[in-house]
Every structure is written in C-alpha cells, then in structure tokens.
C-alpha cells in the first residue's frame, strides 16, 4: 500500500506500519505552520474594528452637530426656507440612523441582535 491509498476503500491504517498522528500533535504542527499568521490577522482585524468604531462614532457626532446647526439656522429664516431646512435636517438625522443601523448589521453576531433599536 502506498501513501496515495491511505484511507481509501475503508483502509484507515497508515502505510508501512507507521503510527497515526495524534490530534494534539497535529494541532501543534498547525500552530507552528499557521499560528503566527493567524495571530497577526486577528490583531489586524481587531485594530480595524476599533478604527471602524471610532469612525462610526465620529460620523454620528458630526451628523448630530450638522443637525443642531441646521436647526439653529432655520430659526432665523422665513417660513418657506425654514420648511426646506427642517426637511434637510430630518434627512441628515435619517442618514445618521441608517449608518448606525448598517454598522449594527455588519457586526459579528448581528443576526442574533438584528434591529434591536427599532
């Protein structure tokens, strides 16, 4: 029996009387081969998630400031311009809510917590 036939047709014995590799030994080998790359990738993903959270928070804050400023400006305007400004303010608020919803939907495990804010 050669290496190619190992595990074929119900034969589950290693070739030439060799022993089967231990599961923990295989995990150690896997960790030696791929462990560092996996750790680096996980660190990079965590950093990206933190940065994304910071960006989302910054955007939400800026949208609140814009909405507040539009509300302040609309007070000093004639009625027709005030209505247009109010509409714009609502649109900006809606955009902020949509961004927040998208951010929540993109989070890991979002399927379990979808649309809790609604």
Give the topology, please:
Layout: H1 23-75, H2 79-106, H3 110-113
Helix pairs in contact: 1-2
Walkthrough of the structure:
By secondary structure, the chain is mostly helical. The chain is 72% helix and 0% strand. It is built from three helices and no strands. Helix 1 (23-75) packs antiparallel against helix 2. The longest helix has 53 residues, at 23-75. The relative contact order is 0.06.
Short descriptors:
118 residues, mainly alpha, 72% helix, 0% strand, disordered C terminus
Secondary-structure element series: HHH
Oligomer: single chain
Q: Helix- and strand-based class?
A: mainly alpha
Tell how many strands the DSSP assignment holds: 0
Contiguous runs where pLDDT drops below 50 for at least 5 residues: 1-6, 112-118
Assign a percent range to the helix content.
over 70%
Inertia-based shape? rod-shaped
User: What is the average of the pLDDT values?
Assistant: 76
Return Rg in Å: 29 Å
Q: Largest sheet, described in full?
A: none
Strand content: under 5%
Brief summary of the model shown:
The chain has helices at residues 23-75, 79-106, 110-113. With 118 residues, the chain is mainly α. The N and C termini lie far apart (63 Å).
């Amino acid at each position: 029996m050669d290496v190619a036939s190992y595990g074929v047709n119900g034969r589950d014995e290693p070739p030439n009387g060799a022993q089967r590799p231990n599961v923990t030994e295989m995990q150690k080998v896997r960790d030696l081969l791929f462990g560092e790359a996996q750790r680096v990738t996980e660190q990079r993903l965590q950093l990206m998630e933190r940065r994304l959270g910071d960006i989302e928070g910054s955007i939400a804050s800026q949208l609140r400031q814009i909405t507040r400023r539009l509300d302040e400006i609309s007070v000093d305007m004639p009625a027709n311009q005030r209505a247009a400004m109010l509409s714009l303010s609502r649109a900006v608020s809606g955009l902020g809510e949509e961004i927040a919803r998208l951010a929540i939907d993109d989070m890991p495990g979002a399927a379990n917590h979808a649309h809790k804010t609604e």
